[in-house]
């Protein structure tokens, strides 16, 4: 299982992926890649193209992770602002960051052309749209920062349909891109299979350990894979207990999709200047209709449980700008990991020889995964990358300390929850699809009744570092607000950093039948 098994279904999940088996025997390869989303499959593709033998594993369906819950903006514009990146890093590192994302998008364009992947790839403009009550100086400062870095950008004073009434300013970033993410992944899978790569679904990795010669990758079903190098591309890294998790924070984000008449909205990427911001793009549908995708309404994972209301606000915001919007066809949520200093963690895993990782995708997970493919394959095959220090996972946080401390208050607040909870008898009042934290003596229990009516009781302690999980009624899962782990109603782990299921707790007599 992975996050494809959460309740909502995205626009992209209708794509049929090539069939892949479950790992059934111990094997060896030059490289084992753990995680089969945009980052893992792109890294695998680059390494296979350079002659390495590759095995790819995923805890659930290949291509069924967070990549299928994105909106697939391919952007060189930085959603946290280049002026902020210069402030917390340096102008030189910000310039390298820009070059890395520009090269990564070029590489995706080349791959889909070379491999004949029909994924609706298109170059489009990107517009950073001024929102009401945001000073124009916000755009001016970012324009100046981009010009210093060599980022192609220009001022626009004509309103777009995404502007609110009476507002017209934006920045235009040329040569951004969009594609259908799961069609692209399906094409990568076929290309990998043609090159002899071995891909295994429903094969959960529980441990990565050094061996006498090779790295050992151990699965939940008892197989051990041997590899010279291992790449962990699991959204949130499953190989590290603490090192990265204190430098990034999990956020839920929401998206809706609906048809609109063709040519209603110019084909482009759009963001506004709010915090959290709205983001908009088109997906081709037919000669008469497009699909518009709108996202936003972000919040810290586990700190809100009001998904329907957030979808409602997204729809209202969209209909104010696009009154001919059709019926909402898809509503879904996903999780992003926000790095404290605005750049993902891609490269050598801290204090682990021959182990590499990618995480910290922020709001640009697709682009970050494409960068990881080039950077990590260079580290493995060449020993270095010009972008290595920009993305180095072991880097220290020297600036933006206030945000670093603020995000790390979450575990402290979370552990205080052990002091409060309803009595366990309250589980009798749980209806289908409901969950709550209850107490049995000194034990905190995650209690839920799934949509089939079955009651589940588990320890409320996340199996990563013990934070208290929170029920997500929209996705019918337990979210860990500290580091982003997610668990199904039956306790199965859907998303890292946790790899083990929640511990089962006995069901009190005469409770299960009550609904």
Specify the number of helices: 10
Share of residues in helices: 10-25%
**Silhouette:** globular
Largest sheet, strands/sense/barrel: 9 strands, mixed
Number of E-state strands: 25
Chain-averaged pLDDT: 93
Distance from first to last alpha carbon = 27 Å
What gyration radius follows from the Cα positions, in whole Å? 22 Å
Structural class: alpha+beta
Percent of sequence in beta strands: 25-35%
**Low-confidence parts, pLDDT < 50 over ≥5 residues?**
none
Structural notes for this entry:
- This protein has 515 residues and is of the alpha+beta class.
- Helix content is 23%, strand content 28%.
- The chain has 10 helices and 25 strands.
- Strands 3, 4, 5, 6, 11, 12, 13, 14 and 15 form a 9-stranded mixed beta sheet that branches. Strands 1, 2, 7, 8, 9, 10, 16 and 17 form an 8-stranded mixed beta sheet that branches. A 4-stranded mixed beta sheet has the order 18-19-20-21, with no helix packed on it.
- The two termini are 27 Å apart.
- The relative contact order is 0.16.
Provide a brief overview of the structure:
With 515 residues, the chain is an alpha+beta fold.
Blueprint (SSEs and pairs):
Layout: E1 28-34, H1 38-49, E2 54-57, E3 73-74, H2 82-88, H3 91-114, E4 122-129, H4 137-149, E5 154-156, E6 170-178, H5 181-194, E7 198-200, E8 205-210, E9 215-219, E10 224-232, E11 248-261, E12 268-272, E13 279-284, E14 289-300, H6 307-321, E15 328-339, E16 345-348, E17 355-359, H7 365-381, H8 388-391, H9 401-407, H10 410-415, E18 422-423, E19 434-440, E20 443-449, E21 455-459, E22 470-472, E23 477-479, E24 486-487, E25 493-495
Helix pairs in contact: 1-5, 1-7, 2-3, 3-7
């Amino acid at each position: 299982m992975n996050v494809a098994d959460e309740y909502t279904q995205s626009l992209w999940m209708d794509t049929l992926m090539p069939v892949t088996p479950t790992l059934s025997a111990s094997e060896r390869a030059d490289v084992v890649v753990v995680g089969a989303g945009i980052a893992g499959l792109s890294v695998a593709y680059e390494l296979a193209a350079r002659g390495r033998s590759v095995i790819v594993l995923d805890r659930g369906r290949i291509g069924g992770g967070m990549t299928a819950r994105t909106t697939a903006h391919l952007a060189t514009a930085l959603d946290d602002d280049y002026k902020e990146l210069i402030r917390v890093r340096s102008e030189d590192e910000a310039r390298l960051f820009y070059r890395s994302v520009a090269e990564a998008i070029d590489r995706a364009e080349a791959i889909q052309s070379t491999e004949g992947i029909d994924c609706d790839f298109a170059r489009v403009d990107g517009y950073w749209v001024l929102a009401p009550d945001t000073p124009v100086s916000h755009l001016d400062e970012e324009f100046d920062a981009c010009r210093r870095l060599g980022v192609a950008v220009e001022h626009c004073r004509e309103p777009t349909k995404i502007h609110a009434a009476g507002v017209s300013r934006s920045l235009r970033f040329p040569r951004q891109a969009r594609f259908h993410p799961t069609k692209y992944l399906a094409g990568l899978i076929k290309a990998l299979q043609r090159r002899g790569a071995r891909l295994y679904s429903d094969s959960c990795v529980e441990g990565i350990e050094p061996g006498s010669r090779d790295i050992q990758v151990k699965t939940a079903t008892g197989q051990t894979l041997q590899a010279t190098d291992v790449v962990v591309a699991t959204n949130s890294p499953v190989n590290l207990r603490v090192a990265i998790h204190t430098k990034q924070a999990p956020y839920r984000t929401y998206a809706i999709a609906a048809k609109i008449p063709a040519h209603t909205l110019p084909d482009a990427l759009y963001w506004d200047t709010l915090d959290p911001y709205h983001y908009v793009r088109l997906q081709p549908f037919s000669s008469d209709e497009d699909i518009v995708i709108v996202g936003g309404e972000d919040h810290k994972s586990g700190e809100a449980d009001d998904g329907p209301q957030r979808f409602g606000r997204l729809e209202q915001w969209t209909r104010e700008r696009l009154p001919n919007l059709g019926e909402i066809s898809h509503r879904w949520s996903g999780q992003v990991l926000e790095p404290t200093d605005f750049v993902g963690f891609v490269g050598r895993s801290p204090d682990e020889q021959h182990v590499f990782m990618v995480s910290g995708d922020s709001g640009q997970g697709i682009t970050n995964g494409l960068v990881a493919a080039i950077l990590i394959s260079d580290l493995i095959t060449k020993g270095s990358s010009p972008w290595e220090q920009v993305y180095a996972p072991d880097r220290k946080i020297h600036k933006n300390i206030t945000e670093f401390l603020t995000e790390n208050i979450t575990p402290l607040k979370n552990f205080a929850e052990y002091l409060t909870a309803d009595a366990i008898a309250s589980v009798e009042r749980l209806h289908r699809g409901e969950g709550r934290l209850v107490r049995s003596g000194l034990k905190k229990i995650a209690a839920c009744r799934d949509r089939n009516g079955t009651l589940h009781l588990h320890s409320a302690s996340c199996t990563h570092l013990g934070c208290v999980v929170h029920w997500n009624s929209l996705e019918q899962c337990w979210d860990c607000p500290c580091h982003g782990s997610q668990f199904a109603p039956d306790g199965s782990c859907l998303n890292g950093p946790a790899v083990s299921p929640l511990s089962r707790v006995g069901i009190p007599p005469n409770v299960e039948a009550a609904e």
